[in-house]
Design brief:
The protein is an alpha/beta fold. About 40% of the residues lie in helices and about 15% in strands. The chain contains 10 helices and 11 strands. The strands form 3 sheets. The chain has a 6-stranded parallel sheet. Strands 3-2-4 form a 3-stranded parallel sheet, sandwiched between helices. Helix 1 runs parallel beside helix 10, helix 6 packs across helix 7 and helix 6 packs across helix 10. Bound molecules: nicotinamide-adenine-dinucleotide. Nicotinamide-adenine-dinucleotide binds next to helix 10.
């Protein structure tokens, strides 16, 4: 029997806890605030930002949203970030990636006040994560950790193979799994586009985490019996559907399901957790900045 992991249900439970923290903060006079900034015409980015704003509204976080013309100079974005850094009603700042080519991602991420960096991408927060003293864990890898915990999939001593080494998913995922303590203590292999004989690596996994951004590149033949499969990939592929596309993961769900003990679907797997953990980080940011204690799980 393969468990099809219900990411929405896990995210709902976390969101309910975050909502109660948001209420505690608001009752203490600190309504958590999240600012999203979009400098892109990309449809997927627009969708992600509006989902994040909707989540804020649902759980009592004040959402602020700013759009910057993708052709504007980088200084337009820098000035917006500077304003948000000093705005006391904003506890978290999220600049939606990717950015236009003429805007340096590194310069943008370094400009955000690390206390308001709810994505956890500022070099100070990356350093803290690597050192085992994370302030804000990056949302998607943190969400994967929450899925594994919710499903009782132990990481301690497990051989975990992460496919992808991006700064947003692959690297922080590997770092979280390497840490001492709950959700860590794994033996981690990180694979990427230059990895030789990927299938040999993925077949050795007790837990496979796919974050390559290549539609259905991992199929059942690359997996061992009983593996737990977490598919982070969200890829738009052409389809007859009303929108003209459908979403698929990096894993070929049907063939992988035949081998896996548990597997996340796309959509409805990791995606909902990413948003839930962003809300979590925003409540944490409001708590850290105000000194009002909350009981985040
Ligand atoms: P990215 O393009 O920045 O990184 C992809 C990584 O995969 C790279 O390190 C690359 O070396 C590796 N890779 C690419 N092709 C490969 C191959 N053939 N074999 C082995 N490794 C290969 O992407 P990203 O931002 O890390 O996102 C990865 C995927 O996860 C995308 O589909 C993205 O849409 C999705 N994503 C989902 C969520 C979510 O909430 N579920 C959040 C972030 C990203």
């Amino acid at each position: 029997m393969t468990t099809i992991i219900d990411g929405n249900a896990i995210a709902d439970r976390i969101t309910a806890d975050v909502e109660s923290c948001a209420t505690t903060l608001s009752e203490a006079g600190v309504k958590p605030g999240l600012a999203t900034v979009l400098m892109s015409d990309d449809g997927a980015s627009e969708t992600y930002v509006s989902m994040k704003q909707e989540a804020c509204e649902e759980i009592g976080i004040e959402g602020f949203h700013y759009e910057i013309d993708p052709d504007a100079p980088a200084t337009a974005l820098f000035e917006r970030i500077d304003d948000l850094n000093t705005d006391p009603s904003v506890h978290g700042i999220l600049v939606q990636l990717p950015l236009p080519d003429h805007v340096s991602k590194e310069a943008v991420l370094s400009r955000i006040d690390p206390m308001k960096d709810v994505d956890g991408f500022h070099p100070e927060n990356v350093g803290r994560l690597v050192a085992g003293n994370a302030r804000y864990k990056p949302c998607t890898p943190h969400g994967v950790q929450k899925i594994l915990a919710a499903e009782g999939i132990a990481t301690e001593g497990a051989d975990v193979v992460v496919v992808g080494r991006s700064d947003i998913v692959g690297k922080p995922m590997a770092n979280l799994l390497l840490q001492y303590g709950e959700g860590g203590n794994a033996t981690v292999t990180v694979c990427h586009s230059r990895t030789a004989d990927l299938a040999a690596k993925t077949r050795a996994a007790d837990i496979l985490i796919a974050a390559a951004g290549v539609p259905e590149m991992i199929d059942g033949s690359m997996l061992s019996e009983g593996v737990a499969v977490i598919d982070v990939g969200i890829n738009r592929v052409e389809a007859d559907a009303e929108k003209g596309y459908e979403l698929v993961g990096d894993v070929d769900f049907e063939s992988a399901k035949g081998k896996a003990s548990a597997i996340t679907p796309v959509p409805g797997g990791v995606g909902p957790l990413t948003i839930a953990m962003l809300m979590y980080n925003t409540a944490k940011a409001a708590s850290l900045q105000s000194g009002v204690d909350v009981d985040l799980p």
